[in-house]
Amino acid sequence: MMFLIRTAFWISVLLLVLPLGGAMKGDGPNAEERASIDAMAALAAAGATISDMRSFCERQPDACDVGSKALQVMSDRARNGAAMIQDYLGSEGAPATPAKAASTAASGRDTLTPADRKPSWRGPASPSA
Fold it and tell me: Which parts of this chain are annotated as the region Disordered (predicted)?
């Protein structure tokens, strides 16, 4: 499922970034109309979109509930991933104090147990002919 979501995301990014052919055809704005759109008109359109999105939960409460649960799951996963990275970087990247370095060096030697020192199993001896 995540593969499909990632694929859809990257395809949409590519479609937004890459130019798809020459002049725009159909009912879209031509070059003169695109040039006449100023920042204030774009800001007003963005404000209208945001105000419409604010009332979305009133119109679709079920979709809002599912979306908030999905957002909670994603934030929990991100928090756990960040904690794992922080633990990894904290243990690997922490500067070693002299006492810590000495204990690490001492614990790094002779760590085999008596069971580890036994020879491995070799199977039954082959009969001599």
Answer: 93-129
